[in-house]
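Marked as duplicate of an earlier ticket. Keeping the data here for the record.
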Amino acid sequence: MLNTAGGVTGGDSFRFTGKATAGTALTVTTQACERVYKAQPGPCGQVINHLTVEPGARLNWLPQETILFNGSALDRRLLIDMAPNTTTLLVEPLVFGRAAMGETLTDIRLRDRIEIRRDGSPVFLDAMRFSGDMQAHLSKPHIAKGAGAMALIVFVSAIAEGQLDPVRKLLPDTAGASLIQNDLLVIRMLSENSFALRRALMPVLRRLNDDTLPRCWML
């Protein structure tokens, strides 16, 4: 996907709908990192993505990092509707400011919701909402201890249970993996910056995607 606007700011509205039809495999990624720019007081930038996975199909939702700028305002939603006997691998990497420019997030608005349903029933739901000084929040030892980036990986597959131990061996100390159900593997990761995050994500995503990644993910 290519954001022809170059980024997201207050009042923008982006919608994407995709489908992996029966027996196919669909990989969706982005040409570059998504940037969420400073917004004026008022409406947030809205991004809504809706994916459907038909019987026997596989979806790989592999966007590159979303970078939040100071003053940004984002309302983002991702909904994946799976049929039975399907596979979904998703990653959502999030970067808190432009570290190379010394930027800190002292004032942002963020709402982010990820929902996966199978045959109409909830399988996974992750939602967060924040308004204010993100830098101060992340600096707390029991929150993120100053981490500058984070990621969520979700793998819904009949083989998820067998991936738990191999994936744990690939993770840095600032990440963890849990088997929520026999077919639902969830990984959360914190990193110092976007480069460290991508370096840690790549072997895990390769492991869960038959040792392949989109070319744009290469370091």
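See parent ticket for discussion. The mean pLDDT is 96.
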